[in-house]
User: Fold this.
Amino acid sequence: MLSRLKRQQRSRRAIWIVRARTPVAALDQALLRLLRTRGHSPGAEAAMKALGLSGEYGAIWMTIGATAAAADRRRRSRWLAGALVAPAAIVVNFAVKKSVGRQRPVITDHPPLSRAPSKLSFPSAHATSSAAAATALARVEPRARLPLLGLAAAICVGRPYLGMHYPSDVAAGVLLGAALGRIAPLPLPAGREPRPARDRAPER
Assistant:
């Protein structure tokens, strides 16, 4: 079985090598190099590294959800459920990564500025968890949508900026995460009961 898995991994790598010769992949590589080599300064790199660290395992999103839950008793269960979307999204992300098998980018003259627990790249776990949690938490408090999405966007941009992911890894992670954030079940606020079916407005 081990030899069969190795053959499958080699075949997936071969597919990615072929795809790397396509115009879309060339654009992906060009965007990666642009982000990895432009707009860099000690301060900017430190900020992006801090954002990347905060996004590890969905830590920043669980912190936001837990803090909001402590301050908002009525919607506590909703905030906590929204926060848990981040680690749940990472589990889904890893399953997709294993099935795709794409390796992280390599720019020999500009090595990555951070480390990762896995060599797998597609889709980005930071992008998936951030988009999922921001979408779910924005459902709890729509007025916080812009700052939540802004934080998620900053974390996402940081991945190719640090040389950790291709832009396409991030784009795929955002799409996957946004879908997960929309379908994640969130409990009703405390003291609010669902209306009986006969009282609901008819669907059109």
Summary: The first helix runs from residue 2 to 19. Residues 8-18 have pLDDT under 50 and may be disordered. The CA atoms of residues 90 and 125 lie 6 Å apart. The domain at 39-184 is CATH 1.20.144.10 (Vanadium-containing Chloroperoxidase; domain 1).
